[in-house]
Amino acid sequence: MTHYKSNLRDIKFNLFEVLGRGAVLGSGPYEDMDVETAEAVLDEVDNLARTKLAESFAAADREPPVFDPETHTAPLPAAFKKSFDAWMESEFYKIGLPAEVDGQPAPPSLRWAMNELILGSNPAIYMYASGPKFGEMIFRNGTERDQKIGKLMNDKRWVATMVLTEPDAGSDVGAGRTRAIPQQDGSWHIEGVKRFITSAEHDLSDQIIHLVLARPVGVEGVGGPGTKGLSLFIVPKYEFDVDTGDLGERNGVYVTGVEHKMGLKVSNTCELTFGADQPAKGYLLGEVHDGIAQMFQVIEDARMMVGTKAIATLSTGYLNALEYAKSRVQGADLVNNRDRTAPRVTITHHPDVRRSLLTQKSYVEGMRALVLYTASIQDKVALAAAGGEPDAEAEALNDLLLPIVKGYGSEKSWTLLGTESLQTFGGSGFLTDYPLEQYVRDAKIDTLYEGTTAIQGQDLFFRKIIRNQGQALGQLQGEVTAFLESQAGNGQLKDERELLAKGLEDIEAIGTAMASSAMAADPRVPGGDPRNLYKVGLNTSRLLFGLGDVICAWLLLRGAEVALDALNGELSASEKSFYEGKVASARWFARTVLPKLASERVIAENTDLAAMDLPEDAF
Ligand code: ST9
Ligand code: FAD
């Protein structure tokens, strides 16, 4: 028995019963991946995740890698390497990679369903194992040379990194100072120090490919200020032959420190120094200066990964809490609590524990539905691209959903893991005997990296709503409204649909208040004052969380409709319980989460500038 408790039944429910993924499997670009194969893949990955992958989760936390400054190395614990090898040897990491890099094409929805299982059981494995996925990105954007590199990254199982952050450039990536100096032979020398780089040193593969944002110097027309002046370079740990992958000289990029962290300790977070004692040779990706846009292809995938990781952790946190609650006997039933001789009961009998368990269950299921719904939109994007006619609407909807998956998913998961899942264990939750304390420590990072929650909120409002002129949001509103106007649930979800309608109205009002403030900040309009933009900034996280709540409620109710239908048929006892649980989650979420949006609306509509007017000394 390992720490990891998966919920494959709910994953399959979303994929096949709610989102109808059967329609995309087994045809077109996914001809070789039919429903039966996809289910078998999920079963096997689930089994692997619960056993070999999860086995080293705690051990690797207790004895994390140690950095040796003499050799610039930070080898990983043997137990973790065993888990990592089990994953790589299974070759499931190839699922979802295109055929061009020797992958096994599959719809993104299957890939993210599978990813939940790895990210829930041992998330660092996923990170070290994503080199081939980086290879896809290099292949997609590259010259012939780069395409060979992209393919080698899969064939040789090389590990890769994304290298943006510097000591003075975190959220503000455009403040980066790392330089790239052009060389006669067409390569570049990279100089500078990057910070917090995941997977930049380890002993899992003989090569590491760093994808580095740096500012070219001395070349006319490129290398200006901000993010737009950054270009993307492939910087290998070792020089190599692009045809054979044979390694050559050590390149001048060295890890000069590994951070001591609160959690996710087996994932090495490194300071990376370029060109200190010897040149760090780099190759411009695609031979075009388009660094930030190229890097965002990686970031988008990584933001989806972080949200999925967070939600996967909450899921196993909840299932561990549920198991504990079913066996922990403490106190008498509330209705007998004046009777000192009343029998003691398991804590699942206490209303407050039930409140907590249902809160965990409904958020987990709502957010899993959010991840897989977003992945199903990515299926649309991928299918349209494969057919040669990009689907701009689906792309914009995916863009809109990504900050919600990442920002809402990570904040809700990390908070609930602490306030509800760990809490269910009482004092035992604080001990290392149970996985909860590690889950809380490991999940906190999800609100920080790949853009903090504040950045996700701003991305949502300014880029995904305002810049998109509300089109993707309108598309989503249309879908929710269509559901509201349907007879979903055949009368059995009437109250919940009303709550959803009110929630939708409240979130629309929050968005409208923010849009009005944004307009009132325009100095070109009469009375326009740029300071009104602060009112928007005071509400971007509120909008992120509120919209997340509405989307999760909608998806949960869609699931409840499917479950109610299923409950009309002949079912085994366990299936009956499963579907009853689905209806209960949706009802609970609608009744306990959505009404809170009314107060969020009042706060948003009454936002003033008091917080911004307050002198710093008064804080
Ligand atoms: C990190 C890694 O934290 C942690 C875990 C690592 C684990 C690695 C392993 C797993 C990864 C697996 C990946 C596999 C690869 C998959 C590939 C797929 C095949 N969407 O608004 P502007 C672009 S890493 C798309 O003016 P500022 C766009 O080009 C560190 N693009 O921004 C835009 O131009 P335009 C993570 C976007 O004011 C341009 O940027 N660090 C988006 O200049 C400029 O935009 C962070 O995440 C978007 N949402 O800069 C930094 N947004 O407008 C967080 C921007 O013309 N900070 N672009 O289209 C931010 O995101 C800032 O808002 C900022 C601001 C840097 C963008
Ligand atoms: P800051 O940007 O200094 O932010 C500090 C606080 O201010 C935050 O609360 C933030 O939300 C807020 N804030 C900042 N700017 C604004 C704003 N404009 N509006 C509102 N609030 C704002 N980076 C990589 O390049 N590659 C990696 O592989 C990588 N892996 C990482 C792994 C770990 C374990 C960690 C801790 C970090 C990693 N990072 C990586 C860096 C990570 O992406 C950054 O830490 C993150 O983007 C935040 O930057 P920062 O830490 O400098 O915080």
Structure description:
This protein is of the alpha+beta class and 619 residues long. Among the domains are: 160-289, Butyryl-CoA Dehydrogenase, subunit A, domain 2; 453-613, no CATH class. 53% of the residues lie in helices and 11% in strands. It has helices at residues 8-18, 35-53, 57-62, 78-90, 108-121, 123-128, 131-141, 144-155, 291-327, 351-386, 392-424, 436-444, 453-466, 471-485, 494-520, 533-537, 540-567, 573-592, 597-605, 610-613; strands spanning 159-163, 179-182, 188-198, 208-216, 231-236, 238-240, 247-250, 253-258, 269-274, 280-284, 329-332, 344-346. A 5-stranded mixed β-barrel has the order 2-3-10-5-4. The protein has a two-stranded antiparallel ribbon with strand order 6-7. The chain has a two-stranded antiparallel sheet with strand order 11-12. A hairpin with a 5-residue loop joins β2 and β3. α7 (131-141) runs antiparallel to α8 (144-155) and α11 packs antiparallel against α12 (436-444). The chain is globular. It starts with 7 loop residues before the first helix and ends in a 6-residue tail after the last helix. The model has no long low-confidence stretch (mean pLDDT 97). The site of flavin-adenine dinucleotide has 19 residues, from β1 and β3. Flavin-adenine dinucleotide binds next to β1 and β3. Residues 162-274 form the Acyl-CoA oxidase/dehydrogenase middle domain. Belongs to the acyl-CoA dehydrogenase family. One of its GO terms (biological process) is fatty acid metabolic process.
